[in-house]
Amino acid sequence: VKTVMSSASGVTVEMRSNLIEPNRVSPEPRASNQGQQYSKIIKEYERAVIFRLGRIVSGRAKGPGLFLIVPCVDQIRIVDLRTLMFDVPPQAILTRDSVTVSVDAVVYYKVVNPILSVTAVSDVDSSTKYLAQTTLRNVLGSRTLSEILSERDAMSQSISSILDEATDPWGVKVERVEVKDVRLPQQLQRSMAAEAEANRDAKAKVIAADGEMKASRSLKEAADIMSESPAALQLRYLQTLTTISAEKNSTVIFPLPIEILSHFNAGRTKVG
């Protein structure tokens, strides 16, 4: 709207109004990103699952490197393909022989199918952790305390196989499970220590008795040999005298022929 005003001095002032005429329609602004695509870069160990209007694009994950997405239409979920690990917190487990133990473990796993890890389960990490806890309790609860203490490798393999099979529909590969610590009640620890000490004492006594038996057997064999050979007995007698005389003591030894001693013993036998 244009307005012209004249002043008394003859100066004409022109004024314009910003009002829009009633019958004119302002054109709508055009979207600057209409048909435009944005670029996205992900790392070598990552994959991108793209949902376009709720459907997965191309039926496979994108990456690594550069790819294009449509803004306001595409939604992206980034999946890490590296091997991940988590600690299974200590679990109170009742063994098959009714002993309560506390066991913890560590699990190594990785995503091998990014699409399944996004579409088959709501939270693949939390689901794998909770499944590991229940599997650990079930496997160890079916074994005795002695088996848990002596067969850790076999138990780890069993837990790993069960977890791997259960998480396969989620696109997850369980690579390794390690049982870390097995904690026993204090009273049970004292009982096991006492039992181990008793076993050690029994083994020591058996070894000592076996040694005495072997020594007695050797002495008997030596006595039999000497009784059959007077010369050997005489040599042993002289060796004993030499050993005694070498010691620093005040013992006085009167060496006598063995024959005299044998006659003396024979006389005592007849008198008896």
UniProtKB/TrEMBL annotation:
Belongs to the band 7/mec-2 family. InterPro entries: Band-7_stomatin-like, Band_7, Band_7/SPFH_dom_sf, Stomatin_HflK_fam. This is PHB domain-containing protein. GO terms for cellular component: plasma membrane. Residues 37-196 form the Band domain. Pfam families: Band_7. It is found in: Membrane. It comes from the Eukaryota. Keywords: Membrane. Its main location: membrane. The lineage of its organism: Eukaryota, Metazoa, Spiralia, Lophotrochozoa, Platyhelminthes. Gene3D superfamilies: 6.10.250.2090, Band 7 domain.
